């Protein structure tokens, strides 16, 4: 990452970048509605001078391979100097995937999130579907060179989206902190993220100010940075079944799973710094506090109620290879016992 802009004055920052790098064409990759509803169209792009842009928005929430191909075709025709992903995780993923597939070393990538949770603007990951099967791209090439994080762009997020994206950011930071791949640097970034998000999420969901939005946006960015260094752990691995089979948004799904691993992972790593940020004195209280936060932002927090009649499928669906990054290594029957309490 060469240019990371945290805070407001987004238009001025982008205009400066355009002028210093002689950018005349921008290829925008946006969600269908967030480009307008977030205010990004007026706040950033309406007043740009000496620059034209083409917008690509006709793709799925879960990007498909053929949609990537179409985006690449559009880029090759338009010949931009900059690809900009604007929106939630799917828009930024699509921008990354198009950028990865375009054979032009002169094009650069920028991501501008309009939600505070995925952290995609700070990672080298992207997800797409080919022939109905989920594919994951992990390549340093798609770590955005330019990032704008502006809480103003999240001010019109509905309450429920603010809730589950905020929980996603908190969960990512917690997983990064306890990951077996964690380093002293990644732990500091994860804790920095939590210092922004944990004290803020209740107000950000229930009675947000611009300052609350700003803190959640910056905290989400740091969570993305941390998870990019360490990768995810068991809660993420188990969450995908809840999204694909019960339609829980990703952040909510991870939030449902993470409390079950707090006590278990605490047996293998020191979670004291997390206790301090959450304002508790034991890992049991940490588990309870996380569940209270879920409840206070209006999210279902009882995983067992959801999967108790589908436990075998829930356990069988997890990719065991993705569990290797988790401190506690359990077998299937131990997982069954874990999720039954």
Task: Write a structural description.
The protein has helices at 10-20, 34-37, 40-45, 65-78, 89-101, 159-178, 184-197, 201-206, 210-230, 234-246, 250-257, 259-266, 272-278, 283-296, 303-307, 311-316, 332-339; strands at 3-6, 25-30, 52-56, 82-87, 108-113, 125-130, 133-138, 146-149. It has 341 residues and is an alpha/beta fold. It has two domains: 3-154, Rossmann fold (3-Layer(aba) Sandwich), CATH 3.40.50.1970; 159-339, Dehydroquinate synthase-like - alpha domain (Dehydroquinate synthase-like, alpha domain, Up-down Bundle), CATH 1.20.1090.10. The strands form two sheets. It has a six-stranded parallel β-sheet with strand order 1-8-5-4-2-3, sandwiched between helices. The chain has a two-stranded antiparallel sheet with strand order 6-7. Helix 6 runs parallel beside helix 9 (210-230) and helix 7 packs antiparallel against helix 9. The protein starts with a strand and ends with a helix. The mean pLDDT is 89.
Short characterization:
This protein is of the alpha/beta class and 341 residues long.
- Write down the CATH class of the largest domain: Mainly Alpha
Task: Give the tally of β-strands.
Answer: 8
CATH topology assignment of the largest domain: Dehydroquinate synthase-like, alpha domain
What is the annotated CATH architecture of the largest domain? Up-down Bundle
Instruction: Please state the overall shape, judged from the principal axes of the Cα atoms.
Output: globular
Low-pLDDT parts are none
Strand content: 5-15%
Whole-angstrom Rg: 20 Å
Order of helices and strands: EHEHHEHEHEEEEHHHHHHHHHHHH
Give the count of helical stretches: 17
Spatial arrangement of strands, main beta sheet: 1-8-5-4-2-3
Number of structural units classed as domains: 2
How would you state the average pLDDT, rounded?
89
Task: Identify the CATH homologous superfamily of the largest domain.
Answer: Dehydroquinate synthase-like - alpha domain
Query: How is the main sheet built?
Result: 6 strands, parallel
Q: Give the fraction of residues assigned to helices.
A: 40-55%
Structural class comes to alpha/beta
Q: Ends: how far apart?
A: 43 Å
């Amino acid at each position: 990452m060469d240019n990371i802009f945290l805070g407001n004055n987004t238009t001025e920052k982008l205009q400066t970048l355009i002028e210093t790098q002689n950018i005349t064409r921008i290829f925008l990759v946006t969600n269908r509605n967030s480009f307008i509803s977030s205010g990004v169209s007026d706040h950033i792009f309406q007043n740009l001078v000496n620059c034209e842009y083409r917008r690509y928005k006709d793709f799925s929430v879960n990007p498909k391979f053929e949609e990537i191909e179409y985006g690449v075709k559009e880029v090759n025709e338009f010949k931009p100097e900059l690809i900009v992903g604007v929106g939630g995780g799917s828009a930024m993923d699509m921008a990354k995937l198009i950028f990865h597939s375009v054979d032009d070393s002169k094009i650069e990538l920028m991501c501008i999130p309009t939600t505070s949770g995925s952290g995609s603007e700070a990672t080298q990951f992207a997800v797409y579907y080919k022939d109905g099967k989920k594919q994951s791209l992990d390549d340093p090439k798609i770590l955005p060179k330019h990032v704008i994080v502006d809480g103003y762009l999240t001010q019109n997020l509905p309450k429920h989206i603010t809730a589950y994206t905020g929980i996603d950011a908190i969960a990512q930071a917690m997983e990064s902190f306890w990951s077996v791949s964690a380093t002293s640097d990644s732990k500091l970034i994860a804790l920095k993220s939590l210092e922004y998000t944990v004290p803020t999420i209740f107000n950000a969901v229930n009675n947000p100010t611009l300052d609350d939005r700003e803190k959640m946006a910056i905290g989400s960015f740091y969570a993305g940075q941390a998870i990019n260094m360490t990768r995810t752990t068991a809660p993420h691995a188990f969450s995908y079944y809840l999204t694909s089979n019960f339609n829980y948004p990703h952040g909510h799904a991870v939030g449902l799973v993470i409390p079950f691993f707090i006590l278990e992972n605490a047996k293998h790593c020191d979670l004291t710094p997390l206790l301090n940020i959450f304002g508790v004195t034991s890992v049991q209280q940490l588990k309870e506090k996380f569940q209270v936060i879920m409840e206070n932002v209006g999210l279902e927090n009882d995983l067992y109620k959801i999967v108790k009649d589908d436990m075998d499928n829930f356990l069988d669906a997890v990719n065991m290879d993705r569990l290797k990054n988790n401190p506690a290594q359990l077998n299937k029957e131990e997982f069954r016992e874990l999720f039954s309490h």
